Amino acid sequence: MVSVKYQNIGCAYDDFVVVEGFDLEIPHGTITTLLGPSGCGKTTVLRALAGFVEPFEGNVFLGDKDITVLPPQNRNTAMIFQNYALWPHLTIFKNVEYGLKLRESDEQAVLETPWYSRFFWVTKPYFWIKGIFNRILTFLAKLKIPIKSKEKSNTYLEKKAEIDKKFDYRRKKVIDVLKLVHLEDQADKLPTQLSGGQQQRIALCRAIVVEPDVLLCDEPLSNLDAKLRREIRTEIRTIIKKIGMTTVYVTHDQEEALAISDRIAILHEGIIQQYGTPTEVFSDPQTLFVAQFIGSSSTLIGKVINKNEAELESGEIVKYSIKENIPTGTKVSLVVRPENILLTSKTESPIEYQINTIEYLGTEVKMTGTLKDGTIMLVDVLENAEEYARMNVGDNITGYIIPEEVFVFIDGKRVY
Ligand code: ATP
User: Fold this and answer.
1) Which end of the chain has fewer beta carbons closer than 10 Å to its terminal beta carbon, N or C?
2) Checking DSSP bridges between strand 271-276 and strand 263-268, what pairing results, if any?
3) Cα separation of 102 and 380, whole Å?
4) For ligand 1, is residue 41 a contact (CB within 6 Å)?
5) What is the per-residue pLDDT across 161-210, written as a single tens digit (0 to 9) for each?
C-alpha cells in the first residue's frame, strides 16, 4: 500500500489550463474520490497520476517516489474505465490473465537482459540467428524429437513444464480474484456473454490481479443502470477494503461518492473546494458550492436584519443559529436540506410555499414548492407522510426551518 501526493501540479491541453497549483495528499489504503461536475478537471488529475497527462508544473509522488515524468508502463498503477475495455475475443480468464502475462514479460525482459545487450547493434545478428535456431528447436520439440543440448534440455515436455509453472501461478491468481467477485464459474465465457455489471466486475479483477500500488477508477459505473450501480459500488468498496488497495476514484455522482469513499475531494473549475470524509463534506460544507453539490438542498437569499435572522425578499423571516455576528444589511445565502423543513404553522417564523410536485414514497413524501419570492424549495415530509400525500399541487402550505440546521454563506464562504 502506498500513498499518493500531488504537489502544486498544473495540467493543460495546449493553452487551456485545467488545473494549476493543485495539492492533494491521499493516504495509503484509502478510497479517495475526486468529485465534481463535468469538465472540472477530475479525469485530468487522475490521468496525471496514471502518466497519460504530463503536468507543466509541480510533482506527483507515489509513496516517496517522484513519478511526475515516469512513463505509464513504469508506474505500478492499474485503471478501470467506464466502458470496461475488455478484449471481446478473449475469454474472461484470458482477459484477467492478460495483465499478468504482460507484467511477466516485462519482468523477464529486465531479468534476462544481459550486459552485452547494450551493444545490440553488434550482437543483433547473433540474436536473430539464435532466435531462428530456438524456433526450430521448439518445432522439433513439438514433434517430440529429443534434442541434445550441452547446457539444458529442450524437449517439448520440459518446455511445457516450464511454461506450465508460470501458467499455474497465473491460473491461481486469476481464479483467486474471480472468486472475490463470485464469477469464477464464468471464466470460459466471452465478455459479450456477461451482463454489464459482470463485465465491470471482470474489469476490476483485471486491474487488481496485477497488485498495483494504486487502483485508478474513471467513472467505472456510469454505463450501468441506477440499481446495478448501487449494488456494484457496495461490492467494489467491500473488495477494495478487503485487499486494502489505495484507490483514486473519479465520479460526478455525489451519492456514489458518499457511498464508496473514505475521503472526497470536491473540485470546481480545477480547484479543490473541500477535502474530507463523506460525513464532513455533507454535514459541514465549507463553501456554497459544496453545500449545493452534495445532497439535496434549497438556497434562500436574504438580508441580515438581526442577530441570527435574515429577511427574504418576500418579507418572510428565516432564523439561523451561528456564533458570528454578521452586520445588518449583509446579503447571505441560506442553504437548507429538505428534511430540515418541518410542516407546522405553530411557529414564530413561518415560511409559506405553494406545492409544485408531490411524490408519495411509502415512508416519506417528497415535495417541491415555490416561496412567495419565487425560490424553489425541496421538502421531505417524514412524519404523517400519508396525511400530506393527500395534498394537491397548487395547495399552500406553511413550514418552519430548523435554525440549527441552516448553513449560512457570505460570498460563497461559510460563516459559523
Ligand atoms: P467529465 O466528468 O465530463 O469527464 P472531468 O471533470 O473529468 O469531466 P476533464 O476530462 O479532466 O474533466 O476535462 C477538463 C477540461 O479539459 C474540460 O474542459 C475538457 O473539455 C478539457 N479537455 C479534456 N481532455 C482534453 C483534450 N484531450 N484536449 C483538449 N481539452 C481537453
Assistant:
1) C
2) antiparallel
3) 53
4) yes
5) 666 667 778 888 899 999 988 898 999 999 999 988 899 899 999 999 99
The DSSP code for 287 is B
The cell numbers describing 205, all together, are: 479483477
CA 63 to chain centre: 20
271 touches 283 (CB < 8 A): no
What type of residue sits at position 40?
C
Exposed / middle / buried, residue 314 (Cβ in 10 Å: 0-12, 13-18, 19+): middle
The torsion region of residue 394 among left (phi > 0), alpha (psi -120 to 50) and beta comes to left
C-alpha 368/C-alpha 371 separation (Å) is 10
C-alpha to C-alpha distance for 292 and 275, rounded to whole angstroms: 15
C-beta of 265 in contact with ligand 1 (< 6 A): no
In this structure, what C-alpha cell is assigned to residue 120? 545490440
User: Using a 6 Å cutoff on CB, does residue 146 contact ligand 1?
Assistant: no
> Could you tell me if 10 and 17 are in contact, meaning their C-beta atoms sit under 8 angstroms apart?
yes
Taking each helix axis as running N to C, give the angle between helix 156-180 and helix 120-142, from 0 to 180 degrees, rounded to the nearest 10. 90
Query: Pick from 308, 264, 274: which is nearest to 415 by CA?
Result: 308
Q: What is the H or E stretch that residue 180 is in?
A: helix 156-180
Distances from the Cα of 172 to the Cαs of 23, 175, 194, 202, 223, in angstroms?
40, 5, 22, 16, 30
Q: Put residue 362 in one of left, alpha, beta given phi > 0 → left and psi -120 to 50 → alpha.
A: left
Domains and CATH numbers, the chain: 4-89+177-281 (3.40.50.300), 114-163 (no CATH), 296-415 (2.40.50.100)
CA distance 95 to 102: 11
The best mutation among 9, 44, 83 to test binding of ligand 1, ranked by most ligand atoms within 8 Å of the C-beta, falls on 44
Residue with cell 466486475: 201
| Alpha-carbon gap, residue 255 to 389, rounded angstroms | 26
11: Cα separation from own chain's centroid: 20
Alpha helices in 31-153 (DSSP H): 42-50, 92-112, 120-142
Q: By the 8 A CB rule, do 186 and 204 touch?
A: no
**d(CA 42, ligand 1 centre) in Å:** 8
